[in-house]
Amino acid sequence: MMLKLAVPSKGRLMEQCFDWFADHGVRLSRSGSDREYAGRVEGVENLSLQLLSAGEIPRELGAGRIDLGVTGTDLVREKLAGWRSVVTELAPMGFGHADLVLAVPAGWRDCETLDDFAAIARDFRRAHGFRLRIATKYHRLVRAWLSAHEVADYQLVDSQGATEGTVANLTAEAIADITSSGETLRANHLKILGEPPILQSQATLFASRAANADEVAALMRKLGL
Asked: Please, what's the largest Cα pairwise distance for the chain?
């Protein structure tokens, strides 16, 4: 049986995936031009390679159309409800690190903790007649985190790009987004609340629960994992 593996299709993440597999005795490479999304595998006979965007890989794993995939833990947990029943987390890969954080305007000097934020959100609703807006593309993760911390006076607004600019554009009062260094947030006059991140993410090798468990186990042994 041929196992189907998908890795990110371009950029630094693709290169790091190729390096990681090479370090574990399996050589991955493109089989065509940069505009093509097919790949080749050397070192494992029953493994084929597809190149997909990192955002597509959770969906394809969940649907069982691929057996294995490399993507961020943030994307799997956001895109797949009940993700543990859909995929198995096989191995963190040690790159692609980023934190999902809640950030507010740097000028909010009295807002350093989530308790401060909750109080500001309550005051905001009383003063303006509507809930404080948080721009994000991570609705499931942010809502679950805020609920666990008993923060209620907010609304999530969808942002699929340039989330850090929504506060300056007056379409949100705060944001929840992925950051690796915080530099982009600071450049947009935002600060991260002094709390543990909503999620610490990294590139991770996942298996679909629809995949052949024996074949997956054999591949993991081949990788030395």
From this structure: 65
